[in-house]
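Researcher: Next sequence.
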Amino acid sequence: MRAHHWPRLRLLPHSQLGEDSWHSLLISMLRGLAAIEVAAAHLRAQFYPGLRTVADPTLWFQALSFVTGFAHQAVVVFFLISGWLVGGSLLNKLGQPDAIKLYALDRLSRLWTVLVPTFVLILAIGIVTSALEPRSADFSATNEFSALSLLGNLAGLQTVYVPEFGGNFPLWSLANETWYYVMFPLLLLCLAPGKLGRRLGSAAALLLSASLLTWPIVLYFAIWLLGAAASRVRLDCGWLTRAALLLILAPMSMYFRLFGNNDDAGPDSFLPDLLMSVVFLLFLCSTVVRYDPASRLVQGFRNSATFFSNFSFTLYVVHVPVYMMLGWLGGTLFGRSKLIPNNLADVAVYAGMLLATLVFAYGFYRMFEARTCQVRRWLRNMLLGETATVARVAPAKH
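Model: Next structure:
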């Protein structure tokens, strides 16, 4: 690898989606770690009281609260990586036959292959825990278990017109993702050369979509777009520059974790998230460098990163329903559904529940998300016929 005395940004003709560079390994690793961080944060919030409500908390409980307090930053990383992978992939394919149709089917299969069985799981847990009365149908827009809520969550309308289905509050970010999947191709069609009528129609559809959404969703589209744009950028530099970017990113993330708004993704948190995103993407762009595939260290890192990355989406959408079930079991079998802070034995219970959630999510992934490519192929053959049979099915990871 050749070191450059002065860092240099280069615009690339194609988005960097290859799996033979360090950035691809980092993306896989970060997807897995971000999902685990979100799951760990929500597990602590579900079963432990807030740190500020605990009198004289022990050092280890303070450390647990701090380490599991980066869920907001983890979701921002999800947005950036989604922009890089999904947006970058469409940029590479734009202009090819049926590119938009294939893109739409890929996005639909990516979401629904996981969401549909997850919603069935939520209904089952709701019935078991008596949170849901199965004998009466409900079509209310305010009932989190209603049929309208289910359909709205499939369409990405949670937090806009309906609540998150079954109280699964992490689904708020999927409303963002769903509409970014819609708005990005409309934006490209506005800017791409072509018939004026098509460009004006795309612009009108884009403005209509934005007008129907909440301001935070529209605002954070800029974060997602940064990820898509960064997929076409490479930062040529040496290890000193990469180390400097990490030395900036780490304390910046900690500062925003301690003093920023970590409860919502909205105007109050946007500027800190934007600053962190720029530094993060600069570092990621500096790692578009090929690795040695023969290295055992690289192979081990790649295998571990790929393993956790593969079921990160499933983990993200199923961990809260699993926690609801664990809480119900704790109250039913042991007479308590909360953990005691400063009780070291309960840390083992916390770790055991997190491990059980990871194991469940992996099994759920094997049953459903791992079949995303098969679902995509079936949809393409059914809806697009011969065009789909010659198209390469995109990897299910994005």
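Model: The CA atoms of residues 249 and 279 lie 6 Å apart. Residues 388-396 have pLDDT under 50 and may be disordered.
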